[in-house]
Specification:
InterPro entries: P-loop_NTPase (IPR027417). It is a single chain. With 712 residues, this protein is an alpha/beta fold. Helices cover 38% and strands 15% of the residues. It has 25 helices and 25 strands. The protein has a seven-stranded parallel β-sheet, sandwiched between helices. Strands 8, 9, 10, 11, 12, 13 and 14 form a seven-stranded mixed β-sheet that branches. The longest helix has 23 residues, at 277-299.
Amino acid sequence: MSGIQKQVTQVVMEAMAAGPGVTVIRAAPGSGKTAGAVRAIVERLQDPPARIVWAVRETVAIRKGPTEKRKRPAGQSLASQTVAALNQAAGHECAQIILGQQHLSEKAYLAQFRWPLPVAVVSHAHLPLILQSGLEGSITQLRAAQAIIVDEDPLGALTLHGGLQPGGLRSLPLRRVVGILDAVTATAADRAAVARLARIEFGWSAADVSLAHQVQEFGVFPPGQSPTESGLRGAGFWQAAAPALALLKTSCAARNQLEDALAVHLRPGSANDPLGAGARQAVADFVVRELLADLVAWEAGTVTTRYGLVWKGGAAATYGKSLAWDLLQRVHVDRPVIVLDAYADEAQYRAVFGDMVQIVDVGHRPPLHVELAPGLALEPARLESRKARLVAQEVQAHAARSPQGQLLLVPKDVVPSVKGLLAEAATLAGAPAADVAVTHWYSGRGVNHFHGRDVRALTLPHLPLSHEVCTLSALYPLAAQAPERRALHRHHERAELLQLLHRGRQGQHPPGAAPRAILHGLPCALCPRAARTACRVQAEVHPQPCTQWDGGITVSPYHAAVPVKALSRNPTARATLAAVARDLHLLCGGVPLLALQAIGLVPSQAGLDPAQLYRATQILLRHATRKDLQTLAAWRARWLAQSGPHERRRLQVWPGTSQLRDNSHRLVEEVLCAAPWAWQRWRIARPPRRSPHVVWAVDETQADRALTVVAP
């Protein structure tokens, strides 16, 4: 057991003995937080009776395919890994998994709470149920736990989000709210207030132009395209809705109807409904109660941002609007709660749990060394084919330097495209596909099976603006707390970058043998704007830990495996030409210009005999079956897969590389006349052609022999 594991074990034991409170343990990713906590639990189990709840992000990981949901094998879920670790450390079966209600029938779900083993491993989603009093039914048996271990940041499970984003509760259509309020209007002022709320349901009138100016567009969208989502929160929302919502204060009937409408609408009742009817009603009551609390605060002069309107499209879109909310669930800490969070933000935990929080830093945290390659950064919204292929070729070429394989980090929506580009790059190189695992941001925490792999982030992690403006309003509900929300938003993005770059466990290896962390970009994009002005990291020469990352990283330039000319319109041309030259050298002993023209890298010139070009192409197709000519073999496979005239095939057979349209052949000279070949350019006459053939070779004799292969 490492020193850090021993310290974590000691901290967990002391926290469990200290009674109610929240202890947050911070230590470097992969340093042994989980292993230390497992050892502490096993020691606690030696003093029965003991009941422990261990909460992880997932109990059954579900990956969505193109047309269906596919469950990942149970052995790969975080819960299964935790159960295996506990059972192995205890030497016997001591832990079980409690699945969520959406994965089981109601009878099977409730049967799990008999809890025959001392440790129950649950998802974060169960935490609000365990940390609340007054619950009824079988699930209350989880509250018999004497301590709760929480692996990773549980914030997402402790907040209630009602909106358009997947994974949240369904927001309530504004027309439903208007209908409930309209039924209890008694005065002209009430009717006018409700009529105004109804008027903005599908657009903005001239009278509401001041509200329209306060709308924020949240969706991530490429420049020139429409936003995917917009919302109105803060003062704008209350100006529009408060006069009508005030009817809820005086009408019990309206409150009850709104609660009932919410309970039905949160999620449709079905066999796989993760919220039971009782839980839905409790959530609906809570949402309405907090809505009234914020309404009273608005009338007293305090602007909150927990509630608002949300709709598809831009600010002026005419889609129907819905009532949205982000709320922090009430938690009652009446037992020890121990959280394992490598990059825990103390302000966040105090906003959730209050003054019962104790932050404990364990062990030394060596900086993560990151190699920066901003020139290879990809913009997911514009996955440029040429640059994306260049990056894929770089990953493929780097495979030889990654004995344990590589892990690529990309946005979720481009994972299939990146996998396709990698397969194409392997075909282009004529080599087996590299050992590359592709995962997306915000999916890799707690996953340890990438140990030893080089980690390459093709983009920076990104959270949408709605995370800052809406989601974090649950913690910081006042409009005046925008700086706190912005700081925590930035912290979550930075923590995600560090968490996933640590997946290779660089710190657990000696210098020189450690897996690499490569970032296609600059970490400065996640720093405060004011800090970027004089930051030397942007010049890629900063040799010391970056001050904006609390000493968490050191940086150096990344040296690409594929030779690339900066700002070139044809950046992969050199790499492709070098690969072809190696094969032609093996085949011919040199590089005839006629061969480059035959395979389509260089356009054929006027005066070249088409029959001679055709014969050269056929000769190369025949020789490209040799196993040692990998690049030519890949060219041959692509050539034969196409149809049509040879000239058309030559334009399409090198994806990602354009033809070298340079009559003086300067680029060919730069590549072939430099190391490792250092060839010369020779002009070999061959009748009946009037002009001599150009060949690059070590001497004139070798040039003549090389030409003979393709023009016998």
